[in-house]
Amino acid sequence: MGTSIVGLGMTELGRVYGRSPRRLAADAVRLAAADAGLALGDLDGLLVSHGMSGSPGIELADTLGLRDLRLLALVNSYGATAGAMVSYAAMAVLNGSATTVACVFADAPLKPKQSAGSAYNRDAPAGKAEWYGFGGMTAALGLRSVNSHYALAAQRHMARYGTTSEQLGAIAVATRRWAAGNPLAQLREPITIEDHQRSRWVSEPLHLLDCCLVSNGAVAVIVTSADRARDLARPPVHLWGWGQGHPGHRKERGSDFGLATGAAASGAAAMKMAGVTAADVDVCELYDCYTYTVLVTLEDYGFCAKGEGGAFAASGALGPGGSLPTNTGGGQLSAYYMWGMTPLSEAVIQARGDGGRRQAPSTDVILVSGNGGILDHHSTLVVSPHAKGA
Amino acid sequence: MEIGVLRRDGRTDPFFDGTAAGRLVVRRCEACDRWFAPDASGCPGCGEEDLGWAEASGAATLVTWTILPKEPPAFLALVELAEGPWLHARLDGVERADLREGLALRAAFEHPDEGESYVLFRPWTERGSVR
Ligand SMILES: [Zn+2]
Predict the structure, then answer these.
(1) Is there a catalytic annotation at residue A17?
(2) Which residues form the ChsH2 rubredoxin-like zinc ribbon domain (chain B) (predicted)?
(3) Which domains does chain A have, with CATH numbers?
(4) Global pTM value
């Protein structure tokens, strides 16, 4: 017996205003159920994940009018949550505690007339700023944004392995080329390495075009047994394997912060369960909060040796026509930022063959990643249009 | 460097007693002989939540850095204290060309007219500060 993703629901994504995160989440679950050919009453499990908004929680079940659920929980592993939720849903189905589980993420950090960056940064207070304690001191001295923390990680990789900004740019360019074929992508205009190099510094060595979008919206998927999936409306996307990795980087001598991530343990576990190796993977849908995140994840998954992610990206492997189609919908860099639901939703679209102009040539084995915190948390899924072992 | 006004938070006050006196005071677990950043919440070695405070030498090396596009640019970093822990820090007296893994640094203390004293890290050689 196996498990499958049978429904995908996506609200409008991007600068979508006027709907609360809870309303967006409810809409996504309804869309996912309709997509699967299920009624809401068929759901007996709901796993909820929220972003910066801190909403919704498990009251979403009430909003949706769901009754007699056998599984209901708020799940939080930051950006690794989507993959984790799907694995918990699959385990619940496999052990019989639930039969049909919706997993949903929603967020609405963007406000009208507010910059995208300010949604995730600790802005200096107006006037003569007051800062409190040691943490306040580092913020006062300038370390206020997630961008700067990832910049510290990327810079360490550059200093240690010779990774270059142009190599990071190759990831931005390849991802944008994929986005051109995705009607849902927020940014579809082609870019060049020169555009990347000319884009403003956000926190050196990261340019603006190294950084993901910020989006409002919600995405839901529905997980059920492979047996039940056969009778539903859409082609099932089978779950072959899953894994997590939480390295617990200590900020002290000997830490490999920036050089390696939880992707190494997570990817190995997921691929072992799936019975595949990196060489079997046709498509990667990777969490790309930054170009650098893609690069280090590819290394940790074993698609190239440690330290060679830059050369691998610059080889053209990741873009349309490349040997390892990666982030085929434009990812978080160019399409939409729904945390781990960005790579997962595109994996479902590709596995179903719904990619249209951007459909990858082969999708037998698709690897999906999630990454949370400052490279603190990682999840991996291996999915396929084919039943496992078939 | 205009950074606003630093206040105590009741949790990291010994650190600011230290900066006022030109000393780098951080967290330390006596039992494990392990040092931590001033905002550490406990020792993962033994589970002690109420870590002590101890004066570090002030010697450090550069782990990694990022540059904020300001005028003048702000050089932010992770530095490794000689005692082992990493601190998020701001560098002072450096130029782009100086930046490399392992660059020797030394804590330097700033005493603004208003608010708490704070620490920056400057390049350092045996003969004293580079600049
Ligand atoms: Zn201890």
Answers:
(1) no
(2) 17-51
(3) 3-110+216-223 (3.40.47.10), 145-213+237-389 (3.40.47.10)
(4) 0.96
The CATH number linked to B106 is 2.40.50.840
- Interface pTM (ipTM) of the complex? 0.96
Least confidently predicted of A106-120, A216-230, A363-377: A106-120
Sign for the pseudo-dihedral over CA of A104, A291, A258, A310: positive
Answer yes or no: is pLDDT of A117 > 60.
yes
**Is B77 contained in some domain?**
yes
Give me the pLDDT at residue A119, please. Answer: 73
pLDDT of residue A113: 80
Query: CA A227, CA A236: separation in Å to the nearest integer?
Result: 10
Cβ–Cβ < 8 Å for A238, A385: yes
For tokens 């900066």, what's the residue? B19
Contact B69 A201 (CB under 8 A): yes
> Using 50, 70 and 90 to split pLDDT, how confident is the model at B67?
very high
Measured CA to CA, the distance from residue A261 to residue A129 in angstroms comes to: 35
Q: Residue A134 and residue B78: Cβ atoms within 8 Å?
A: no
Q: What is the number of other CB atoms lying within 10 angstroms of the CB of residue A162? A: 12
